[in-house]
Each structure stands twice: as structure tokens, then as C-alpha cells.
């Protein structure tokens, strides 16, 4: 049922080549649902009031995977979707999302995904989202993900969000609110090239006592691309937050980082580090002495940095 | 001619107790010039169009000191002053500024100093500015310094700017533009207590090839005070910038840091680090085992941090 282009996109964004019969699954293609199935523990339901799905993970679910890939292979698609995740108390779940656009046409194809996570007490969520664009058309490939995360007492969430390549414009908005003893880890990876533009806002309120946040953002800007990062961490209670943004600059790319950290409680510990610069020349020379060309050496370093 | 209050203020802000006959000197008190003298190398001239002075340091001047303290001992003074510094090519000079307010009255006393530095080629400037407030009145003590720094090729400037204590409200604005091979070091130290408010904006354009910037900002927020830091470093050429902001939080104080770093050139290296948190408890316990009370131990750590 899926053609080769679609299978390749799925492989790029989700590491799968088709439906996953064993686990909860929802495939959205070119703006509408193609295939959906639930499991006894994970129910996926289409929303009745707007485009998108509700995903319910039963309390104390163990070791389930949920796949919710989105692919766009037509030119001129403008897709807006709302996905809500309700993760029951004590559930352990892995969610694999992602969006791939193959645009061979002249019109812009765009996907705006608005994801909201309601993470119950002591629940444990690992979320992976890959964004990828390809195709030879002049039409733009635009992905604007919005992610809201509400974390109850003692919950844990790890959000691995990456934009591999080929996305012409992205405006990424992430907001999280942490309850008591909640811990959030955000790993963001971003590569831009050509004349691409990427803007990433991440805003976290550490409201709960003993809550913890770790953000590691790594990016590479090539050619004439432009990146802007704006992470905000607010310690509103006894808590710990560490925000780290490292960027590699190549060609004529421009990268800015405008973090904001605030300690609004005497027992809040908030740390931010950011570094922007080109590839370490010692590393480049070392790899070239092993016989790699300059381009190959750069590729190895960039791959390692974003792995 | 100076009374004891005035002498003590001078001591606090400039480490002197009166006029300095050997060096160029300008004392401003309660909104008007009190005493001024130049040297063969350093000419201080009153502005004709607005309040303030022009300070001319002759090219290739060596080892001169310039003292330009400001004191306010009356309640209800609102003083705005423009000081322009013209540092000749290859000159080496040390400038000691500072402003002390002793306010025993009920009305607000305010000093807004707008300082502009034109630093010639290969010139070397060390600038020290201390801000201090005291007095038992309910009148506010407000200091709003604006500092502009234009640096020509190969020049060096070190700006040591501190707000020791007693300043109820401050809005600090610093802007610098660096030419080829210019190097700027900014050391900022800030202590707030009571219900004080401090806002510090520092904006630097590294325009020149091989220019360098180092900002080290250290602050302590006590009681119910609020501090906001907003440093901006823009690498517009091959350059290096390092911005470091460390803050200690005590009582109910609130501190935010909103740095902005941008690399607009592939050979720009820009690094930012910020940490906000309370005093390290290991250090506190160690000092207490030496017989210090908790308050004494805190004072020792705060003094060491801001020294």
C-alpha cells in the first residue's frame, strides 16, 4: 500500500518501513489518517472537533511503543494537526513520532503539529521526534512543531527532538511545566543548510519542589542558513536546571542564542552554557592525517556532534 | 573644604579622601563642579552645551591617573551629566570614577552619568567605577550609568564596574564597538539588598578582525532584591568573546539572566556561561567548623566572590 518514496520517508523519520502490527500505530499522510490501530493498553482515537488524535496510555502500562509518523509526499499540502497524549499514572511508554516531507513540486508543503502531553504521576515517557525534508521541487518544506508538556509528581520525560535535514523553515515551540519531583530531559538536534531558517523556543517552568530539567541542544549551521535559539528556564521552587547549547558554524551561516534563566526561589539552581564556533581545527587536522579529505573530516565531526 | 560625610563617600568610591594634586581631577558634588584641574597630558574642560566634562588624554601619555568622582549628600538632587573621554593614540591611562550618594532625607537623589569613551589606536585604558549609597533617610538612592565605548585598532580597555551597596535602583546600560585587534574586558560586580532593583544591559559588537571580549559578571542578591542581566555579544568578524555571569542568591531575592550571543561570521567564537544558585553548602560548613557563625561564614564567601 505504501510506495517506495513513502517507505523511505518512514525509514528516515521512524526507522520503520511500514505498519507495526504489534504496537499502537497511527500513520497520517498528506493531511489525513491512513492507518490506525490500538492495543489493550494504548487507545488511539480520532478527535471529533478538530484534526488529530487522542492517545490514551493506561495506568501502569509497561514497555509499550506507540508509533505516530506523519508523511507528506504531495506539493502544496498545508496540514495542521492536534495530538494529545494522556499518559496514565505509573505507565512506561515509548512514543516514536516524526514528520517527513518529500516535495518534488513548486508549492510549499507544510505540517504544523501541536502536541500536548499530560504525564501522570510516576509515569515514564521517552518521546522521539525526527523531522526531515527531501525532494527536488522548488516548493518549500516547512515544519512548525509545538510541544506542550505537563508533568505530574514524580514523572519523567525524555524528549529527543531532531531536524535531520531538508527542512526549509521551522519554528519550534516547546513549553513544559514540572510538578514535584518531576524530571524533564530535552535533547534537541538541528542541522540547517542552504538558505534554511530555524527558530527554537523552549520555555520551562520548574514549579515543583525538587523538580529537575536538563536541556542539551546541539546544532550545525551550514551554507547561508540562520538559526535562533531562545531557551527559558525558570526555577520557581527548590529545583535544578541545566541548559547547554552548542553550535557549529560553517560557511556563511549565522547562529544566535538568547537563553533566559531565572531563579525565583533561594533553593533554585539554574545553569546555562552556550558556545558557538567553527569546527575545532585540531580535530580536522588529525582526521586529515588519517587520509580523509577536509570535507570528509568535517562530515565525520558533524555526524559525531549530532549523533 | 570637604566635610566628614563627603570625605567618607570619596573614600568608599575612589579610595581617596580629597583632591589629588598630582593628577587630573574633577569633583562634582550635588549637581555642580566643585574642583577641577588638568595636567600637561590630561586636559579636563567643562562642556559648554550641556552639563559634564570633556577629558582629553594626549597621544602617548604614560602612566597618568584621572580622578572624576561624583558625590551627592543632599536629598532631592536629580543630576544628569555627560562625560566624554578622548584617549589619544598609544596613550596609557587609568581613570577612577565613581558615585556616592548619602541621603538622609525623604526625597529621592539620583545621578545619571552618560560616559562615552573614544579610545584611539593602541591606547590602553583601565577604568574603575564604584557606585555606593548610604544614609538613613527614606529618600531613594538611584544611579543610572550609561557607558559607550568605541575602540580603535589595537586598543585595550578594562572596565571594572561595581555597585558596592546601598543603591535602591539602578539601570546600567553599556555599549561597546570593537575595531580590529581591539580587546575589551568588563568586570561587573553587583550587590543588592533590601528591596533594591538592578538591571544591567551590556551590548558589544565585535566588528574588527581578531577583536576580543571578556565579560565577567558576579552578583549577589540578598533579602527581597531583584536583579536582571541582559548581556549581548555579537561576533561580526573573526573574533573571540567569552561572557560569564555568576550569581549568588540569598533570602527571597530573584535573579534572571537573559544573555544573547550571536555568531555572524564563520570565524567568530562566542561562549556564554551563567549560573545562579545559593552559596555552596560545603563551603559554609567548612567555614563554620573553623568557628564562624553561619552569618559570618556567608559574609566571608560573599566578600570573596565579589572581591
Automatic annotation (TrEMBL), chains A, B:
InterPro entries: Fe-S_cluster_assembly_SufBD, SUF_FeS_clus_asmbl_SufBD_core, SUF_FeS_clus_asmbl_SufBD_sf. SUPFAM superfamilies: Stabilizer of iron transporter SufD. It comes from Amedibacillus dolichus. This is SufD family Fe-S cluster assembly protein. Pfam families: SUFBD_core. Belongs to the iron-sulfur cluster assembly SufBD family. It comes from the Bacteria. Residues 87-305 form the SUF system FeS cluster assembly SufBD core domain.
Amino acid at each position: 500500500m505504501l510506495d517506495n518514496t513513502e517507505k523511505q520517508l518512514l525509514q528516515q523519520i521512524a526507522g520503520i518501513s511500514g505498519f507495526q502490527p504489534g504496537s499502537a500505530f497511527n500513520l497520517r499522510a498528506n493531511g489525513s489518517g491512513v492507518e490506525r490501530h490500538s492495543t489493550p493498553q494504548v487507545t488511539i482515537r480520532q478527535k471529533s472537533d478538530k484534526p488529530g488524535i487522542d492517545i490514551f496510555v493506561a495506568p501502569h502500562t509497561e514497555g509499550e511503543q506507540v508509533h505516530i509518523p506523519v508523511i507528506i509526499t504531495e506539493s502544496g499540502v498545508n496540514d495542521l494537526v492536534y495530538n494529545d497524549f494522556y499518559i496514565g499514572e505509573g505507565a512506561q511508554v515509548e512514543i516514536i513520532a516524526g514528520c517527513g516531507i518529500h516535495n518534488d513540486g513548486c508549492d510549499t508543503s507544510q505540517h504544523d503539529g501541536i502536541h500536548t502531553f499530560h504525564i501522570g504521576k510516576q509515569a515514564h515517557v521517552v518521546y522521539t521526534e525526527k523531522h526531515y525534508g527531501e525532494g527536488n521541487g522548488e516548493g518549500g518544506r516547512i515544519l512548525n512543531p509545538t510541544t506542550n508538556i505537563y508533568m505530574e509528581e514524580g514523572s519523567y520525560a525524555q524528549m529527543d527532538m531532531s531536524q535531520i535535514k531538508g527542512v526549509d523553515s521551522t519554528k519550534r515551540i516547546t513549553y513544559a511545566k514540572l510538578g514535584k519531583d518531576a524530571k524533564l530531559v530535552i535533547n534537541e538536534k538541528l542541522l540547517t543548510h542552504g538558505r534554511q531558517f530555524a527558530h527554537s523556543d523552549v520555555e520551562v517552568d520548574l514549579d515543583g519542589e525538587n523538580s529537575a530539567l536538563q536541556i542539551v541542544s546541539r546544532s550545525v549551521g551550514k551554507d547561508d542558513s540562520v538559526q535562533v535559539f531562545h531557551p527559558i528556564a525558570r526555577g520557581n521552587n527548590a529545583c535544578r536546571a541545566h541548559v547547554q547549547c552548542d553550535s557549529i558554524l560553517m560557511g556563511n551561516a549565522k547562529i544566535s542564542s538568547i537563553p533566559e534563566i531565572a531563579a525565583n526561589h533561594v533553593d533554585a539552581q539554574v545553569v546555562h552554557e552556550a558556545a558557538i564556533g567553527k569546527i575545532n581545527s585540531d580535530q580536522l587536522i588529525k582526521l586529515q592525517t588519517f587520509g580523509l579529505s577536509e570535507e570528509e573530516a568535517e562530515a565525520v565531526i558533524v555526524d559525531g556532534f549530532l549523533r
